[in-house]
Amino acid sequence: MELINLVYKKGQDDDRLDKYLAAELDDVTRSYVQMLIKDGLVLVNSKAEKANYILKDKDVIDVTIKDLEEVDIVPQDIPLDIVYEDSDIIVVNKPAGMVVHPGAGNYQDTLVNALMYHCTDLSGINGEIRAGIVHRIDKDTSGLLVACKNDFAHRNLSIQFSEKQVTKKYIAICSGVISHNLGKIDAPLARDPKNRQQMAVQVGGKNAITNFKVIERFKKHTLIEVLLETGRTHQIRVHMKYIGYPIVGDPIYGYKAEIDNEHGQYLHAKELSFYHPRTGELLSFSAPLPDYFEKKIEELRKEE
Question: pTM of the full predicted structure?
Fold first, then answer.
C-alpha cells in the first residue's frame, strides 16, 4: 500500500476532489479516483468526503493506493508489428491509440499485455505493470519501441538511454509554415502547475533539447524530422507548441480545429538506433509512416 499526502492550494483549476486527484496523481483515471473515494481510501482533513466535494485552501488530502504490482496483469492475444526480436530484446512498431503499459484503472489492451502473451519472459526491473519496458512513447504516437526480455538487457539499455547513446528520430506534421530549415529548441520541461496532467516549459524544469529540420512545406503546414537529445514526457509536442508550431491532431497541445479524434497527433517514431545489450553491435531500425499519415501528407500537397 502507498500513502500519498497532498495539500490543496486555493486557485488551482480543479477544485472538485475527484478532478483534482485525477490531475495530481500519475497514470490514474478519474473513475479510478472515484472508486478510491467510494472505498474510503481518500480522506480530506482526516474525514471521508464525496467525489464532488469542493476543496478549500489548505485542505489536507490523504490517498491510499494499492501497489500497482499487486494487480494481476493478464496476457492478451493482441497483434504485434514485430520489427526485430532475439533472446534479449524485441523491437515493435506500435500503432497510434495503444497505451504502452497499464496504469491505475486501465489494466488491459496495452503493449505490455500484448508482450506478455507473445514473450515467454520479460524483464522485471520495473515490476509486472511495466514488464520489459525501458522507454515509452505516447498513446497516440505511432512507431518504434524496444522492450527487454531480461534484466541484463534492461540495465544495459537503461544506461544507454541515460548516457544518450540511443538515437530516436520522429516525423511530424506541424500547424503553420516554418520558414527556417533547421531548428533547436532548448527549453526545460516540468508539470504544468495549472494542469498536472500536462507538461509545460518551466524555469527550473528538467533539461530538454529538441532538434528538427524541415522536410516539406505546405500551404499552411510543415512536415519535419525531429531528433531528440533528451526524452522528456510529451517533449516534442510541448516544444513545438512553445515555438508556435503545434503538432497537427494533438488533442492537448494542438489547435482545437485540427484535432483528429481517430488518429491523435501526427507524430511517428520513425527511426531507433542503439547498441545490442549483449553483443555491442549497433542496431538501427526504421518503420514506415502509417497509411493515414501518408494520406494526410497527400491531402496537404493537394492544397497547394
Answer: 0.78
